[in-house]
Amino acid sequence: MSESMTAEARKRRVSLRWKIAALAAATACLVVAAVGVLVHVWTVDDIRGRGERRVHNGALAALDVYKRSGVLSDGGELDPPRLPASLRDLSDDHVHTAFDEHVEGNSGPTAWGALRTDGPGSPVLAVPYNLSSEYHSLRRLDVSMAVASLVALLAAVPVAVYGAGLLARRLRRVSETAVRISAGDLDARTGPTKGGDEVADIAATVDRMADSLSRQLHTERRFTADVAHELRTPVGGLLAAVDLLPPGETEDLLRARVRDLRGLVEDLLEISRLDSGAEQVARARVPLGEVVREAVERTGYETRVAVEDAGSVETDPRRLERIVGNLVINAHKHGTAPVEVTVRGHLVVVRDHGPGYPADLLREGPRRFHTGAAERGTGHGLGLTIALAQARLLGAELVLANGPEGGAVATLRLPY
């Protein structure tokens, strides 16, 4: 599970890195586009403003020369056929300007300035100014800005990718720490991170969470161990006292209840040893089929055992028997007969024909003192917890599932 979570985290990390780079590139493109449009619009307005001022002054100068000498100067023309329609019917003596966007060859756009030569009805004196050179410079400016923007973008994207990589590496440390903590390694810590930003805050929060979980778990384990040890002596005394009772129904009932209490105390002690890491594995090469048969027989329940091409495994036979015994007992107590045990290769499958494991157990795993659905019977909920802990200690994998035709299915996969 931890490997799949790590793989998913790696995919998200790479995706985040490129998303940040793409966002930086998109932002750069938007800034470049906005600046380019603003510069283009400002330049066009400046070209038109300068053209308008030039034809305005040119028209006044040409009119002055025309009135004094009758000669057209500064490119002035009388009622030229190319004059824009808005300048043909002027009603006052002021200079009016207009722009002709028509381009023909190297001519155009053109700015026009015009005014009446001598009041209403007189010819219109017009002065054109060809803006083609200015617009050619504008096109060169646009190309230059586009090239410069492309160069800047090509330089910005690697920088953005590098910066995103630095962020991804910092997030990777936090993610890997969180994965290790979720896998049960409560000693995992991210440690100090550079930057003093949100990532550092997240890392510190994860470390504080791990510290809190470690303290709580240590307290819980210590409490479990203390309770089990404290109960062991009085339970032993109860067993001795029961032996002194006269035979009868009361003695049988008390003996059964004290035996259940002793089993609970022994389970608590076993869990406390597994939690503390004090248990040591004594490995030996044993025939898997025979070990499973003996473990099933010791449970005292009628169980079908089928051995199909089972080989030998190197494991701790005592712990393997404990796992198989707990699974079989759990199947009989909480499931429905017949209970079947199949040994195939390095797999041990225990199946019953009851209602199956409850959904929360499959989703969250076995929990201590929690037996799941009421229809699966009663108990203290430690059998599956011990089986899973012993399987982890052996390096085996225990998978709990429900069969397609109903019933709970527990599959123990032993290492080769």
Quick tags:
single chain; 416 residues; alpha+beta; Helix Hairpins; Heat Shock Protein 90; 3 domains; five-stranded mixed beta sheet; four-stranded antiparallel beta sheet; 8 helices
Characterize the structure shown:
The protein has about 425 residues and is of the alpha+beta class. The protein folds into 3 domains: about 1-155, no CATH class; about 200-275, Helix Hairpins, CATH 1.10.287; about 285-415, Heat Shock Protein 90, CATH 3.30.565.10. It is built from 8 helices and 11 strands. The strands form 3 sheets. A 5-stranded mixed sheet has the order 6-8-9-11-10, with helices on one face. Helix 1 packs antiparallel against helix 2 (about 130-180) and helix 3 runs antiparallel to helix 4. The longest helix has about 70 residues, at about 1-70. It is rod-shaped.
Topology of this structure?
Layout: H1 2-69, E1 77-78, E2 96-100, E3 110-116, E4 124-130, H2 132-182, H3 198-243, H4 249-276, E5 284-287, H5 288-299, E6 304-310, E7 312-315, H6 317-334, E8 340-345, E9 347-351, H7 359-364, H8 383-394, E10 397-402, E11 408-413
Parallel strand pairs: 6-8
Antiparallel strand pairs: 1-4, 2-3, 3-4, 5-7, 8-9, 9-11, 10-11
**Total of helices:** 8
Q: Percent of residues in beta strands?
A: 5-15%
Instruction: Name the helicity range.
Output: 55-70%
The structural domain count equals 3
Q: Which runs of at least 5 residues are low in confidence (pLDDT < 50)?
A: 1-6, 373-380
Overall spatial form: rod-shaped
Strand order of the largest sheet: 6-8-9-11-10
Summarize the entry for a quick read:
With 416 residues, the protein is α+β, with helices and mostly antiparallel strands. The protein is built from eight helices and eleven strands.
